[in-house]
Design the sequence.
């Protein structure tokens, strides 16, 4: 099971944080009671965590039963049930431990460090997770911010491209002093995305065009604009290349690593965290955010209170687009170095998932992005170590969102288990099954 | 059929919603259940209809105890219910809706549409419901939709009909029609349980009135009981039904409106060139039947709806200003639909208290919100305006209607105002809250504000206005002093004509008289006549019982 569950909210203060599924002895009734209340009241944190657990369990079954060895053993289940079950368990456990080793901590590197190995290697999986989480935090914030103002931003992908184009161009086409170059590219990325986002908001404000349609269509426009620009030597194409690829950004435009040799993070990650803090401040501590939230919650009341609903739409889409553009800049100036026709990957759409999972709150978005970053980072390691295809990570993501999006399903699922057993104390056992 | 409830008790956690309630409904009786919002009326009726189960107590029909576990049992026991929110399929026809769930069929299970239609037509005729079985429900006005619900209950042979706050969604004239139908049903030997918190309606229609307060039956009275006594029973203390106020001493003109034309939603003008002025220290009451352009007038005054003409505040032309600028210039706005236009339900009380001043000092410094200041203001306002809330952080949607209105009132009155525009400020509120709101409005007038009060409740107009303007079809048909007779107001409200057909098929002369006062018509149905004659009848309770 993923380490994310370490942040268990309902754990009793005494006795530390027990791993989920293991009811703390003696305190079981109150723990169960608290849990039931939390589930019935639909505490979003609990529902989210249960959704992750459910997805991990289902994903584990999927891993186990896609393994030919396990399948073979199950065909002879009745002659040797123990072997079948333990093989299934082993397959899932191996895959998940490879996933954790690739995303959080690999015990081998710790052991190696004691025997003169590299200390820095211990932190490699974590920094990989942070690096993978960086663009997801930003696109997640983009979707979440628009969502709080009542808009569904499907266009983080297109805005990502807008930001990436500007950041790439500034990265290789302009020469500036070192630190300034990085900052100028980041700002350029923000502006590139902001323009695309603002266009959506402005169209909605002026003509009432629905932002979902406009953003989806702008995504296609941006994808094709990107291909066009990458195909024109006068624009972004790398000289002497026939492929759709840009030159690498200048070394002084690249995001530095921060924190010296062993534990280090990409500066992009810090930018993303700062953006999350900024969005948090904007939403909960500023008049602009108050206006956004009012417009999102009840546009009629916002109008009655003298707020300019249409201006809010344009402004929130501008900022949301900027955040997605910043994600583009962070990827180009970070791990990718150059722009190709499909660099945009699934950052934009993963942003929607991350925002949903994070319940459109900046802290939630950051945590959800870290979870997905860990899944990405660990997925690659898992494939290398156990032949479980990295696609299973996509399945896990999908399952998590499915369960989060259907809290009644999660509730029904876990209450169903309760119904079969005796009383309140039995509840925690329910999920270990 | 005689229906008895004996010792019904229902608890929700520590809250006792119904505390040993006894109630007997005789056949052929209209029994009113009067109580403030949250007194437990609806819980009791939900128990009777099988939607919730009582913790204690017994329901008896003709002396025999029965158990009602679901609405199905209730229907079998010949109990019908018309909910406040209708349970109709909007895209189905009337006949389809009323037969839903017990469709008459021919051989091979084919729907017998003809029978369904003729049954609807028969019932409609018998009780003068005037419902076309082939009309699609979503195209019908609310009043007719309610009749469809009644037909639905009648088709299931209900002999006890529960009407849950049936007039809350009706215009005065529709209420008037409903009362006539209720009387016809009574004449047919059916009994009706009429749930309401409106004193006048209850006095007008009920044979017996049972008053409930905090889950207990606190008294049973006849319809002759005075409003003051009923109100006192209902609220638990003496209530001033008519706020006391001194003579107005109007000052300078605060707000002048010239030739205001406001387009409506359908493209036709909703307000067709009206002019008026309001002076400091006076309340201008804008009377009129709902839907004669009052909503559009208010929205235009706030800049929420484009309009032509001039609006001058003090000596400043604000015709072209944004809503924000108008609010800043000192117009306070209490919108007609508080939940939709005045509050953000999921925001805490504290945030709703600053909804239109959130960007002004002291709540904002630059673009930063001063949360301490917001909290401090809320902490001060909540007791000042007697807002009953668990905390300032509670969602405003969790408050009762009266307390929600107090939040809006606190917000608007709480800042520096020059004009207060209050649209239907007490709609749906219970007597206690009405008293509170009225007192505050008069207080503002005495402080020198110019107040525009838009209301379709004539009682409210009479209680508050220093000058009355009557709106009819987008025009002001006249200005009158508050001493004007209700007959004269009635004439102005219906365009000064007694026999114009306004195109509403359901509205005959009786309907036109209705707007005079929803509460009137104690004798209206029996004596169909000109609106003027009825106005005479209806005028009595409205006018002569200020406490």
Sequence:
């Amino acid at each position: 099971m993923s380490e994310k569950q370490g942040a268990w909210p309902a754990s009793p203060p005494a006795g530390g944080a027990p791993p989920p599924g293991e009811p703390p002895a003696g305190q079981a009734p109150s723990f169960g009671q608290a849990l039931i209340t939390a589930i019935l009241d639909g505490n979003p944190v609990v529902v989210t965590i249960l959704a992750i657990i459910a997805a991990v369990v289902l994903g584990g079954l999927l891993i186990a039963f896609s393994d030919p060895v396990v399948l073979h053993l199950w065909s002879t289940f009745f002659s040797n049930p123990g072997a079948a079950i333990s093989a299934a368990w082993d397959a899932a456990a191996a895959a998940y431990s490879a996933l954790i080793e690739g995303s959080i901590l690999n015990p081998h590197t710790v052991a190696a460090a004691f025997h003169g190995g590299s200390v820095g290697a211990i932190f490699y999986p974590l920094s990989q997770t942070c690096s993978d989480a960086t663009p997801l935090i930003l696109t997640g914030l983009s979707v979440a911010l628009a969502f709080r103002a009542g808009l569904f931003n499907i266009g983080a992908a297109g805005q990502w491209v807008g930001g990436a184009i500007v950041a790439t161009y500034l990265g290789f086409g302009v020469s500036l002093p070192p630190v300034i170059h990085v900052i100028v590219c980041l700002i350029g990325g923000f502006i590139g995305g902001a323009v695309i986002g603002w266009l959506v908001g402005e169209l909605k404000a002026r003509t009432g065009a629905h932002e979902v349609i406009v953003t989806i269509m702008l995504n296609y426009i941006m994808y094709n604009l990107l291909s066009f620009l990458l195909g024109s030597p006068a624009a972004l194409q790398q000289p002497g290349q026939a492929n759709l690829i840009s030159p690498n950004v200048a070394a002084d435009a690249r995001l530095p690593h921060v924190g010296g040799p062993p534990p280090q993070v990409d500066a992009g990650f810090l930018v993303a965290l700062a953006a999350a803090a900024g969005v948090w401040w904007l939403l909960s501590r500023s008049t602009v955010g108050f206006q956004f939230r009012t417009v999102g919650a009840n546009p009629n009341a916002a109008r009655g209170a003298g707020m300019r609903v249409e201006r809010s739409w344009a402004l929130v889409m501008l900022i949301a687009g900027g955040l997605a553009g910043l994600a583009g800049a962070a990827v180009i100036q970070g791990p990718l170095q150059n722009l190709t026709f499909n660099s945009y990957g699934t950052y934009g759409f993963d942003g929607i998932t991350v925002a949903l999972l994070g319940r459109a709150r900046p802290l939630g978005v950051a945590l959800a992005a870290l979870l997905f970053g860990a899944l990405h980072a660990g997925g690659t390691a898992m494939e290398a170590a156990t032949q479980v295809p990295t696609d299973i990570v996509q399945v896990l993501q999908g399952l998590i969102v499915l369960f989060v999006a259907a809290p009644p399903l999660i509730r029904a699922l876990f209450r169903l288990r309760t119904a079969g057993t005796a009383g309140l104390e039995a509840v925690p056992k329910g999920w270990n099954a | 059929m005689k229906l008895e409830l004996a010792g019904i008790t229902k608890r929700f956690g520590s809250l006792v919603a119904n505390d040993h309630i006894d109630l007997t409904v005789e056949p052929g009786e209209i029994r009113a259940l009067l109580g403030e919002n949250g007194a437990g009326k609806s819980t009791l009726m939900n128990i009777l209809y099988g939607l919730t189960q009582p913790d204690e107590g017994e329901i008896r029909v003709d002396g025999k105890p029965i158990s009602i576990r679901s609405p199905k049992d209730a229907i079998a026991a010949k109990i019908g219910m018309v909910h406040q929110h209708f349970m109709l399929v909007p895209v189905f026809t009337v006949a389809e809706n009323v037969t839903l769930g017990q469709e008459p069929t021919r051989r091979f299970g084919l729907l017998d549409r003809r029978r369904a239609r003729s049954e609807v037509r028969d019932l409609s005729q018998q009780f003068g419901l005037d419902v076309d079985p082939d009309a699609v429900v979503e195209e019908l006005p609310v009043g007719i939709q309610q009749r469809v619900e009644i037909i639905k209950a009648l088709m299931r042979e209900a002999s006890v009909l529960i009407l849950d706050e049936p007039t809350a969604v009706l215009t005065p004239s529709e209420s008037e029609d409903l009362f006539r139908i209720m009387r016809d049903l009574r004449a047919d030997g059916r009994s009706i349980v009429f749930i309401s918190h409106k004193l006048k309606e209850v006095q007008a229609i009920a044979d017996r009135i049972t008053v409930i307060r905090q889950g207990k039956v606190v008294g049973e009275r006849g319809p002759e009981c005075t409003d003051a006594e009923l109100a006192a029973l209902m609220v638990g203390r003496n209530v001033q039904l008519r706020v006391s106020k001194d003579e107005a001493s109007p000052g300078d003109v605060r707000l002048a409106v010239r030739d205001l034309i406001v387009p409506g939603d359908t493209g036709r003008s909703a307000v067709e060139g009206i002019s008026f002025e309001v002076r400091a220290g006076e309340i201008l009451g804008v009377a009129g039947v709902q839907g004669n352009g009052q909503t559009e007038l208010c929205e235009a005054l706030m800049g929420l709806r484009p309009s032509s003409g001039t609006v001058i505040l003090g000596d400043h032309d604000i015709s072209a200003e944004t809503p924000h600028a108008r609010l800043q210039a000192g117009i306070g706005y209490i919108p007609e639909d508080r939940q939709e236009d005045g509050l953000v339900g999921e925001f805490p009380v504290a945030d709703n208290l600053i909804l239109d001043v959130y960007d002004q000092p002291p709540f904002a410094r630059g673009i930063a919100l001063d949360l301490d200041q917001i909290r401090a203001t809320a902490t001060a306002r909540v007791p000042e305006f007697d807002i009953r809330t668990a905390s300032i952080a509670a969602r405003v949607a969790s408050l009762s209607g009266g307390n929600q209105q107090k939040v809006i009132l606190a917000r608007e009155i709480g800042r520096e105002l020059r004009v207060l525009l209050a649209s239907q400020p007490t709609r749906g509120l219970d007597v206690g809250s009405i008293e509170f709101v009225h007192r505050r409005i008069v207080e503002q007038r005495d402080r020198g504000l110019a107040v525009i009060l838009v209301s379709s409740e004539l009682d409210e107009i009479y209680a508050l206005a220093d000058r009355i303007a009557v709106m009819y079809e987008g025009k002001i048909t006249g200005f009158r002093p508050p001493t004007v007779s209700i007959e004269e107001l009635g004439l102005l409200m219906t365009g000064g004509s007694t026999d114009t057909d306004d195109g509403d098929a359901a509205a005959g002369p009786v309907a036109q008289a209705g707007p005079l006062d929803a509460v009137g018509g104690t004798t209206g149905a029996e004596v169909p006549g000109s609106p003027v004659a009825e106005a005479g009848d209806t005028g009595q309770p409205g006018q002569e019982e200020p406490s």
About this structure: Strands of chain A lie at 257-258, 265-266. The longest strand of chain A covers residues 257-258.
